[in-house]
Write a structure and sequence with these properties.
This protein has two domains: about 60 residues, Orthogonal Bundle (Arc Repressor Mutant, subunit A); about 40 residues, no CATH class. Strands 1-3-2 form a three-stranded antiparallel β-sheet. The chain is mainly α. The mean pLDDT is about 90. The chain has five helices and three strands.
Length: about 130
C-alpha cells in the first residue's frame, strides 16, 4: 500500500459486493472512523488499481461515488483527498430528510407513519 492508513481488501468470492463497492465502502468507513484523517491524500486511481489488481475504471467509479457522497474531494492535479468529515454528508442527509418529510406530507402520512417507514428502511439497510 502507499500508506499504512489505507488498507483495502477485495473479496473475490461469489456473492461478495462488486469490487468498486468494496473500495467505496472501505474508504468511506475509514474516513468516517478517522482511520483516514481529513486531508489524507489518496493514491491515484491508476496507482490504487494496480495495487489492488483492479481495472482503473473500477477504482475511478468508486472515487466518483465517494466524491458524490462528499467523502473525498479531487483537487485537480494536486490529487484526491479525504474531505472534511461529516460536513458534506451531514448537509446531504439534511437535504434528503427535508425532501422525505415533504414527500411524506404530500402522501398524507402522519409524522409517526413517516418515522416508522424511515426506521424500517434503516433497519433493512444496516441490519439493526
Amino acid at each position: 500500500m502507499t500508506s499504512t492508513n489505507l488498507k483495502i481488501r477485495i473479496d473475490g468470492a461469489a456473492g461478495a459486493d462488486a469490487p468498486y463497492e468494496q473500495v467505496r465502502t472501505q474508504i468511506a468507513q475509514a474516513a468516517r472512523t478517522g482511520t483516514l484523517p481529513v486531508g489524507y491524500k489518496l493514491p491515484t486511481v491508476r496507482g490504487l488499481a494496480e495495487e489492488l489488481g483492479l481495472a482503473a475504471n473500477t477504482v475511478a467509479k468508486a472515487y466518483r461515488a465517494l466524491e458524490a457522497d462528499g467523502v473525498i474531494e479531487t483537487r485537480g492535479r494536486n490529487g484526491t483527498f479525504v474531505a472534511a468529515a461529516g460536513e458534506g454528508a451531514a448537509r446531504e442527509a439534511a437535504a434528503a430528510a427535508q425532501a422525505y418529510a415533504e414527500r411524506a406530507q404530500r402522501l398524507g402520512l402522519t409524522a409517526d407513519e413517516a418515522t416508522a417507514a424511515v426506521l424500517d428502511a434503516l433497519r433493512a439497510r444496516f441490519g439493526a
